[in-house]
UniProtKB/TrEMBL annotation:
Protein name: Ornithine cyclodeaminase
Gene3D superfamilies: NAD(P)-binding Rossmann-like Domain, ornithine cyclodeaminase, domain 1
Pfam families according to UniProt: OCD_Mu_crystall
């Protein structure tokens, strides 16, 4: 006797946002508005920081790069991101960073969202940088230098424009083709764009200095004599052990702000400093518990390595924004038998015989 195989139940389906749908979603909202939306969710979660499970990311390092898992939960929703970082990939025509992420309900363990995060990570990294800069930059900041003009650079520029009021960006990369790419992409975006031939030229007259280089090495992108008083440094390239961008003497002249110290001390610029070197946590500044910039001459430094709560915020924003839109599809991801104890029976019936 032949019977029809059981159709998936409603509980079997999980909303999935592909790369194509993520790009369509971003375009429907607008890049700057999308970044602003993520920043609002980031601010909410930073203010709720103490409710989250927090752990340094679980990393598997190799000579070529790193593969990481970044988990967190606020007690109601659990989230994680899979992400890699392989600087050599660019030379092979591949992305340095790829990622995907998931949200799940804590009370059932059932996933409620699966999403690409290669594009979303770039957006949330920019949103984080700009949110922190908004709280730490000198008053009246209007110019940003971007050292490293790879995949993240344009997102950083547009985020700083939207959240911080930046009107002028100065670009530099050791590869002139990268600078030309970034400058072309930023045409018509409401920014004055200046292409520079040295890092020193780029930082002259800039109040915000962003470094976002990819090489997995202890580099000196900015030397001590290049950085004057009264600036905010947004150092986001040093995101794994053995990878830095700033001369250590710059750190010693700066007030340093980090996401999660146990992770940043392993991966960030401050891996070059003693384990007990004093730093501030950015969530406390955003939540109003600590003061950020205290003087015009102060050098503030955001040692940003990326933390799981930021991905959680970005995924929450996407989950809320895809409701009622065509920018997702339903994946049959969960086995959901009529009798939860009869998974084998569900398998047998799937043959339709």
């Amino acid at each position: 006797m032949t019977t029809d195989a059981p159709a998936p139940s409603d509980l079997a389906f999980v909303p999935f946002v592909s790369v194509q749908n993520m790009m369509r979603l971003v375009q429907s909202i607008g890049v700057e508005s999308f970044i602003e939306g993520i920043a609002a969710y980031l601010e909410e979660d930073f203010r709720n920081w103490e409710a989250f499970d927090k752990t340094p990311r679980v990393a598997s390092h190799s000579a070529e790069g790193v593969i990481e898992l970044m988990p967190t939960s606020n007690g109601e929703v659990y989230g994680f991101k899979y992400v890699n970082g392989h600087p050599k990939n660019t030379r092979e025509g591949l992305q340095t960073v790829t990622a995907f992420g998931l949200l799940a309900q804590v009370d059932t363990g059932y996933p409620v969202l699966l999403s690409e995060m290669t594009m979303l990570t770039a957006l949330r990294t920019a949103a984080t940088s700009a949110l922190v800069a908004k709280n730490l930059m000198p008053k009246g900041s209007h110019t940003m230098a971007v050292i490293g003009n790879g995949a993240q650079s344009e997102f950083q520029c547009l985020a700083m424009k939207k959240l911080c009021g930046i009107r002028r960006v100065k670009l530099y990369d050791i590869d002139p083709a990268a600078t030309a790419k970034a400058a072309k992409n930023l045409e018509g975006q409401g920014l004055e764009v200046v292409s520079c031939t040295t890092a020193q030229d780029a930082i002259e007259g800039a109040q915000i200095l962003t470094t976002c280089t990819a090489d997995k090495q202890c580099a000196t992108i900015l030397s001590d004599n290049m950085v004057g008083a009264g600036v905010h440094i947004n150092a986001i390239g040093g995101d794994c052990p053995g990878k830095t961008e700033l001369h250590v003497d710059i750190l010693k002249r700066s007030d340093i702000f980090v996401e999660y110290p146990p992770q940043t001390r392993i991966e960030g610029e401050i891996q070059a400093l003693p384990d007990d070197y004093p730093v501030e946590e950015v969530w406390e500044v955003i939540a109003g518990r600590k003061q950020g910039r205290t003087s015009e001459s102060q050098i503030t430094l955001f040692d940003g390595v990326g933390f799981a709560i930021e991905d959680f915020s970005a995924l929450r924003f996407v989950r809320d924004r895809i409701k009622g839109t065509p920018f997702m599809e339903q994946l049959d991801m969960l086995a959901d038998p009529d009798d939860p104890r009869d998974l084998f029976g569900m398998l047998q019936r799937s043959s339709g015989e």
